[in-house]
Amino acid sequence: MAPGGVNAAQWGLVGKLAEGSQVPMSIQNLAEVAELERSTVARNIRVLEREGLVALGESVEDRRAATIVLTDQGLAVLRTGEPLWQSTQRQVEQLLGRRPASDLRALLLSL
Known about the structure:
Layout: H1 8-19, E1 25-26, H2 27-34, H3 38-50, E2 54-58, E3 66-70, H4 72-96, H5 98-110
Antiparallel strand pairs: 1-3, 2-3
Helix pairs in contact: 1-4, 2-3, 4-5
């Protein structure tokens, strides 16, 4: 994902933010959706904010919680990275075969 300007962990968070773009997400919400520790998400969100890929705002429901939204630059990274991600997935399937690649994804999701 380097050509898109993010690492794999950050790519995953950008993707989760895009999936839930109709609902403002807090760091806690994003951590739950991404199934990651809150501290891991917070650390990566700070990097994404510094890079201009996300913006933090104040939650209407809880002033202590920040909401996270993708910026136009974050959406551009998503558009750039999606073909790279799909290409990589196809390469994995070519190397392992469709069924083993699917089994590997299922195993990784279960961790």
